[in-house]
C-alpha cells in the first residue's frame, strides 16, 4: 500500500467529528453545492439563485437555511446572499482534493473510454454537416490492436482499454489520440469483419498479448467532423451500410485539387469534453493531383 503524505495539525479527525459531520451534511446536497458555486464569485439575490438552481421558493429557502446555519453563506441584507470565508475555504478544499484524487482520474478515464467506444461503434446516429479541413498528421509510433469478429469495435477496444487505462494513457487524449478503422471492411453476407485501433505512444511500453507497435507514416488528410446522433437511422445508411459523411468527404476530394492517396481512412473520437454528442473526425488520405 502506497504511503500518503499527511499534513500535521493540532488534533485528530475524531476530536472534531461532530462539527465535521455537521459541516459535511450541510454541503452534501447537489442543490446546496450549486448555490455555493453560484455565490463563489459574487453575491446574488434570492430570485437569481432560484433561476440558477431551478427550485421552488420553499425548497430554495430550505437549502439556504442549511447553509446559513453552517455559516457557509450569509445574508448581509434582506433577500441577498453571499458566501463566507469558511464557505470558500471548505468548497475550495473539497474541489482541490477531488481534483487530485485517484477516484477522479479513474472516473475520467472510464468516461473517456466509454466515449471512444461509442464514437467508433457501428451503432452510430445522425451526421451534422461540417466543413472539410486539410490536416497534416505527423509520423508517429502507434500501439495497435486488431480484432475480427461480429463486434470488432467493442472487442478491439476492450483489449486496448485494458492495456492503456492502467498506464494512464486515456487521461491524455491530445498526447495519445486514438484512431480506428475497418480492417478488413464488412462484406455483404459475412457477419464478421475487422476493426483496428491505433493509439499514438511516446515510448516503448510493454504491450499486452495480441498487440504490436507500428510506424504510422502520417501524411495529408481531408477531414470532416460528424455529430453522430441519428445517421444510422437514416435511409441512406439502411440502403448503403456506411456513413453518408464518408460519401460527402469522398465527393469533396473528387471536386478539389486533391486525389485520394493510399493509406487507411481513419476515425478519431474527439475529446468528450468538446461536445455533448459523440463527435467523430473522419480522415481521408489525400495528395495533390
Kindly summarize this structure in a few lines.
With 289 residues, the protein is of the alpha+beta class.
Descriptive account of the structure:
The chain is an alpha+beta fold and 289 residues long. It has 2 domains: 87 residues, Orthogonal Bundle (Arc Repressor Mutant, subunit A), CATH 1.10.10; 167 residues, Regulatory factor, effector binding domain (Multidrug-efflux Transporter 1 Regulator Bmrr, Chain A, Alpha-Beta Barrel). 37% of the residues lie in helices and 25% in strands. Strands 4, 5, 6, 7, 8, 9, 10, 11 and 12 form a 9-stranded antiparallel β-sheet that branches. A 3-stranded antiparallel β-sheet has the order 1-3-2. Helix 6 packs antiparallel against helix 7. The termini are far apart. The relative contact order is 0.12. The N terminus is likely disordered.
Amino acid at each position: 500500500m502506497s504511503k500518503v503524505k499527511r499534513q500535521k495539525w493540532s488534533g485528530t479527525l475524531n476530536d472534531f467529528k461532530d462539527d465535521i459531520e455537521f459541516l459535511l451534511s450541510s454541503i452534501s446536497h447537489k442543490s446546496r453545492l450549486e448555490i455555493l458555486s453560484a455565490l463563489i464569485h459574487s453575491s446574488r439575490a434570492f430570485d437569481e439563485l432560484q433561476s440558477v438552481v431551478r427550485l421552488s421558493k420553499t425548497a430554495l429557502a430550505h437549502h439556504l437555511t442549511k447553509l446559513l446555519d453552517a455559516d457557509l453563506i450569509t445574508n448581509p441584507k434582506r433577500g441577498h446572499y453571499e458566501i463566507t470565508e469558511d464557505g470558500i475555504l471548505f468548497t475550495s478544499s473539497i474541489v482541490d482534493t477531488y481534483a487530485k484524487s485517484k477516484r477522479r482520474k479513474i472516473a475520467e478515464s472510464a468516461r473517456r473510454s466509454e466515449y471512444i467506444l461509442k464514437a467508433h461503434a457501428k451503432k452510430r446516429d445522425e451526421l451534422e454537416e461540417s466543413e472539410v479541413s486539410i490536416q497534416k498528421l505527423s509520423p508517429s509510433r502507434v500501439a495497435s490492436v486488431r480484432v475480427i469478429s461480429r463486434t470488432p469495435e467493442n472487442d478491439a477496444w476492450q483489449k486496448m482499454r485494458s492495456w492503456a487505462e492502467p498506464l494512464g494513457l486515456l487521461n491524455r487524449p491530445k498526447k495519445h489520440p486514438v484512431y480506428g478503422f475497418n480492417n478488413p471492411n464488412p462484406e455483404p453476407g459475412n457477419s464478421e469483419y475487422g476493426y483496428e485501433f491505433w493509439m499514438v505512444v511516446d515510448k516503448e511500453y510493454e504491450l499486452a498479448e495480441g498487440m504490436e507497435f507500428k510506424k504510422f507514416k502520417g501524411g495529408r488528410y481531408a477531414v470532416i467532423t460528424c455529430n453522430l446522433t441519428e445517421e444510422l437511422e437514416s435511409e441512406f445508411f439502411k440502403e448503403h451500410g456506411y456513413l453518408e459523411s464518408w460519401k460527402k468527404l469522398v465527393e469533396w476530394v473528387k471536386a478539389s485539387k486533391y486525389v485520394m492517396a493510399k493509406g487507411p481512412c481513419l476515425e478519431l473520437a474527439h475529446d468528450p469534453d468538446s461536445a455533448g454528442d459523440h463527435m467523430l473526425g473522419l480522415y481521408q488520405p489525400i495528395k495533390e493531383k
